[in-house]
Amino acid sequence: MKFKFYLALYISKLIKNTLHILSKFMKVNGSHLPGNIATKICPNFLSIVSKPKTIIAVTGTNGKTTTSNLIIDALEAKGYKVLNNKTGSNVLGGVTTSLFSGVSLGNKSKFDIAVLEVDEKSTPRIFKYVTPTYLVVTNLFRDSLKRNAHSEYIFDLINKSIPEETTLILNADDLISNKLKAKNSNKKIYFGINELDTDTNESINIVNDARICPICYSKLKYNFVRYHHIGKAYCENCGYKSPEADYIVKKVDYQNNFINVFYDGKEFEYKMVSDSIFNIYNQIAAITVLKQLKIKDKDIKDIFLNMEVTKDRVKIEKIGNYSIINHLAKGQNPVACSIVFKYVKERKTSKEIVLLVEDYHDNKESSENTAWFYDCDFEFLNDESIKRIIVSGVIAKDIEFRLLLAGVSKEKIVALKDENEVAEKLSYNEENEIFILYDMYQSKAVDKVNSDIKRKIEKITK
Amino acid sequence: MVRIEFLFPEVANLYGDPFNVKYLKNSLKDAEVIETTLTDEPRFVNEEIDMIYMGSMSEKAQVIIIEKLKKYKNELQEFINKNKVVLFTGNAFEILGKYIEDEEQNKIEGLGIIDTYAIIDRKHRYNTLFLGELNCEEKLKILGFKATFSFSYTDNTKDYFCKSIRGCGNHKESNLEGIRIKNLFGTYLIGPLLIINPKFTKYIMRLLGEDNPELQFEKEAMDCYEEKLKIFEKQEINYLQ
Hints:
The structure holds two protein chains of two kinds.
Chain A (H helix, E strand, L loop, with lengths): L1 H21 L10 H9 L3 H4 L5 E6 L4 H14 L4 E3 L7 H10 L11 E5 L5 H5 L6 E4 L7 H4 L2 H11 L5 E5 L16 E6 L27 E7 L2 E5 L12 E7 L4 E6 L2 E6 L5 H16 L4 H9 L8 E6 L2 E7 L5 H13 L3 E7 L3 H6 L20 E7 L3 H10 L7 E4 L15 E7 L4 H19 L1
Parallel strand pairs in A: 1-3, 1-4, 2-3, 4-5, 5-6, 6-9, 13-17, 14-15, 14-17, 15-16
Antiparallel strand pairs in A: 7-8, 9-10, 10-11, 12-13
Helix pairs in contact in A: 1-2, 2-5, 4-9
Chain B lengths: L1 E6 L11 H9 L3 E6 L14 E4 L4 H11 L3 H9 L3 E5 L9 E3 L5 E3 L7 E4 L5 E9 L6 E8 L1 E4 L8 E5 L9 E2 L1 E3 L2 E4 L5 H4 L1 H10 L10 H16 L8
Parallel strand pairs in B: 1-2, 1-3, 3-4, 4-14, 5-7
Antiparallel strand pairs in B: 5-6, 7-10, 8-9, 8-11, 11-12, 13-14
């Protein structure tokens, strides 16, 4: 067994280095490949490979990359060497690659601490061999129905895979993931955000996967709903209620860019890393982790002074008097798209929207399962501030129909088979911001639409 | 007025299924939708109801709902016998069968109203398109999507919902999809079934007593249907996803 392990270690290290050199000359994508080969040669490789003493794993539907990065950056700023899979993959192979990269040829770990982002569906395979000291679960939502089915399915996968020794760091406001290991002895620490002015009493979203009490199945009462099943709730019938947060954001000051966090009987003020509520959750999750690692309050404060979450999902461009805003809207993910649609609606300008959200691959080889359109709040796009919606793609007509059912008037909608005519259909009224909402596999269409629009603007302004 | 009872929307609401009820209500001239929750007594037990709908749910919700409906099994059976309309989409119709067994051999007894049983395997998800002919005189073409962990097994040679043209039936080797007993329609198809199948929706509306049914956005719905049918009939497209 020992022989097999070292054979696997050397071969996979060699492959990893070769891939690294190759990547300088060409596009090679495969941070999971060396890890997969190691496991092929030695099936329990992951259990034998030496690991750092402290392992922080981060999983959840949204925000796991941002949260991991915040923790890594903070620890590195404090001088720690942090083993991580930031540039690699978050499935079994990728995590294996990261872990063996952190050991010497004699299988000695070179790091004291690891921060690993873990894909939700990969938790059973990874936690079988890797016991996280801390596991952060950011949240659990409906995701792609084809791959992830429903949130209870993902919940069960994670719940069954968490080792007894792991301390859980959970979102008190997430009525699904806050129930992880509820019946087990795992230590649990909760983070949350107090009621905000923007919260409501009833869910305004189509999807809310926590409508009933998990104990007696009566309808849950919400003290407040933030979005979907994020909020605080209780059961009138049996007394069940959301857990109290140990680390709680008491105040969010958007004007001065800080948050007030309460824990250990004291209140602390931190600079916000981003003004989106989702990133405030990620930040409070990171703060909770840093506190467990005994980082001093003052140090955490200083670390955040110089930190900012880059908005790689939004690109705002000004061309003359025109604004073009490209915003990623992950297709087949109804919650992610609903959040983007709400953001567009709430922007205090008038706008025209280009929707490139259908799945490129599915519609090329097959026909996209359109069920997710009906889990997604297209209703947010039925708003006075939205003057025109141009939908492009093979199944543009299906999206047009969804918009009609959402109450958008037919005159506002233009449905096109492909991206070629999109730029022609905009009004180029300087008062309207141009939004391009796109799925990540639509890059070809996104590029075409952007360059056509720019050409058009140039022509007009000449 | 047509009264539609939507059973347990607080849990049986996956994959956009509830929009079927919304679209049907908006298309009917005069309809009321009653949402019955797990703590209510179902309305079909003591009131005049014209149609019952239930949508996709988690495997745990199936157990809760079976437990809930056990008491009302006879009334539900009677409702079906009286030729009333029942539409169950996704895995909802599995609860009507004899039992449901999961990948760990946990077996739960179903309502036993129909002669089927379901096998769940959460380790393998099955995604496919479906094209078939409705079990009715007009042989309407039905389009749909499946995304499932489970399959049903039974002899449904007489009682099927659709005969498959492409895409599997109740299980991978079957070409007969779902069940149809009188006006009970049970199908694994998920999501906007009534929205992408306007002809079927009108068929249901006729069963509900609307002689000249007219759909909400009928022209657009028909255009979408014809266009999608053309795509689904192309030999070169993949059904498995």
